[in-house]
Amino acid sequence: MEISIPMTIAIIGTGLIGPRHAKSVAADPNAALHCFVDPRAEAAAIAESCRLPWYESVQAMLQAEHHPEAAIVYGKKLIETAKDSDRHLIAGHHRRFSPYVTAAKQALEQGTIGRPIAVSGICVTYKPASYCESPTEWRAGVTGGPILINLVHDLDILQYLLGPITRVHAEKALSTRGNQVEEGAAILLRFASGVIYASPSAHNFESGTGENLAIPRVGKEFYRIFGSEGTLSVGDMKVSSYDDGVEKSWTSLLNEKLLAVGQQVSFNEQVANLIDVVRGLEQPGWTGPDGLSALVVCDAVRQAMVSGQPIDTSEIM
């Protein structure tokens, strides 16, 4: 592919984050924003403000005079099709490119806290009633809720940091709004590595990192990873461990140090990675199988809430 030609990108499904993705695409000199695809009138207004075409559906976009090539398939079939065609399949997830996640990943790979043993997360957000009102009332139904909207991102990052999740236990939280969908859950996860994880949902990566300008940054931890040689809290980026020569004991004092965190903008890094993958310069930062795996764990969480029993993810895959 000719490197000097900008990569044409369409935003399909605008939602809350679509305009943020569009901003990153527009800011990249190697990208050209083609259009918005979304049936909602609000999306048409966004497209108009960006002076770009708007289409109600992918079919309408493909029928336009100047249309990009596309193929719509689903789940495992999509992954198999990409593999059979010797093509990369990217599942867009900007948090993989967060400097906080990068710093945590490097610390774990360098053995900063020894062998990971357990991880916990306690971070909750309050979504106003308007969040589930028209035109986004679907968020109160079975296709919405914090598991599919919020938790899926955290499950992906946890698997990225600690490996695949194999078993899920979950209890549904008390409902205060009477919506059809869950409002939260207490979750226990087991990883293939033996690491265990416990957390309520919904999580709040945004307030910990400040990546979303609409949510105030507080810099508090949203994960705490316990290792054989220390702990790492992701958010405030503190490593707690014993000094050399000090006995590892509950009677010994722990020292704290801060991990350095870069200033990269994860949305921008995601767009750059997409372009470089298409040009054959890089590997995907987040793949189709990664995306499917996170959805499988979400499904296991919901099954566990209903059944009251542990769910093995292998039974769903």
TrEMBL record:
> What's a single GO MF annotation on this record?
nucleotide binding
Coiled-coil zones: none
Task: Enumerate the spans annotated as Gfo/Idh/MocA-like oxidoreductase N-terminal domain.
Answer: 8-74
What the entry lists under InterPro entries is as follows: Gfo/Idh/MocA-like_OxRdtase_N, Gfo/Idh/MocA_Oxidoreductases, GFO_IDH_MocA-like_dom, NAD(P)-bd_dom_sf
User: In what residue span(s) does the GFO/IDH/MocA-like oxidoreductase domain sit?
Assistant: 102-232
Q: Which family does it belong to?
A: Belongs to the Gfo/Idh/MocA family.
Record's protein name: Gfo/Idh/MocA-like oxidoreductase C-terminal domain-containing protein
Q: Which organism is it from?
A: Pseudocercospora musae
